[in-house]
């Protein structure tokens, strides 16, 4: 951009006037990775919006099968919610340690985050297995199809988040907290907190409103 | 060309230490966490203790708590503000929120009326049409 600054206008009145395409002293990001990742998250948000809309339309079509009030176990959902919320704050602690360039503490907090995420996935798989076992699988009714699609897509996101987390832990332990790794950790931070935001919608819209008569 | 080197040096200085790293604080995370716990616990307690007499009221309260909690997460965990990335983050978010609202309300609205208009009695009427 400084080259264009130095370039004189083609039919300029004088060499003192130069073309400029930015406000001097204005803060503009050096690379757009975080912005690009944010745009990806927004498109992911649209996927979840469509799945929420499907659940909103089909969520009460039980086909004479079991309803949400019959199936959902709220204490289990409460434990799941607290696991995900705790994993959000532990990732926050990892980011804080990363800012202080303390590699070991960052890795420990990342590990705790991964364990909490794995606990969340484990409980969700347990719930799914139980539902399928008692004959309330995705084939039972439109309600259960949309339920499994929405909650399953979220669970799949968390699973890949854990895979990404482990990859980053290996990279940080090998290369240290270099600038590239910090950028990657910030991207995963956005991804992880975003999944927590989606889960707020899931537990409110699907579970809590699902058990209401 | 001396101006060129000056500018690039200045840029390197300005961005070297904070590139790709937002400025999070322990206070911010803890505030967000405490608010999130409260905003999660209240709707769970409300529904598990039976809720209001009218289920619609309970549903609306649960949705309101969810909306507030989403805003809390956006501010304290995702560090949303009007300044980040020169305002483009916020612009993309507003655009997405508009699309999400259209998708959700539009789908539910249209499908509700579709169900309503395809009642069995209507089907019976349609059979009698020429």
Helix content of chain A: over 70%
- Tally of strands of chain B: 0
User: Terminal Cα separation of chain A, in Å?
Assistant: 62 Å
Low-confidence stretches of chain B are 1-21
Number of helices of chain A: 7
Largest interface: A-B, 58 and 56 residues
Overall, the morphology of chain A is: globular
* SSE string of chain A: HHHHHHH
Shape of chain B: flat
Beta-strand fraction estimate of chain A: under 5%
Describe this structure in words.
The complex is a heterodimer of chains A (213) and B (130). Chain A is mainly alpha-helical and 213 residues long. Chain A is 74% helix and 0% strand. Chain A is built from 7 helices and no strands. In chain A, helix 2 packs antiparallel against helix 6 (142-175), helix 4 (74-99) runs antiparallel to helix 7 and helix 5 (103-133) packs antiparallel against helix 6. Chain A is globular and about 75 Å long. The N and C termini of chain A lie far apart (62 Å). The relative contact order of chain A is 0.15. Chain B has 130 residues and is mainly α. Chain B has 2 domains: 23-79; 86-124. Chain B has 5 helices and no strands. Chain B has helices spanning 2-16, 26-48, 55-76, 88-117, 120-127. Chain B starts with a helix and ends with a helix. Mean pLDDT of chain B is 80; it is low at 1-21. At the A-B interface, helix 1, helix 2, helix 4 and helix 7 of A face helix 1, helix 2, helix 3 and helix 4 of B.
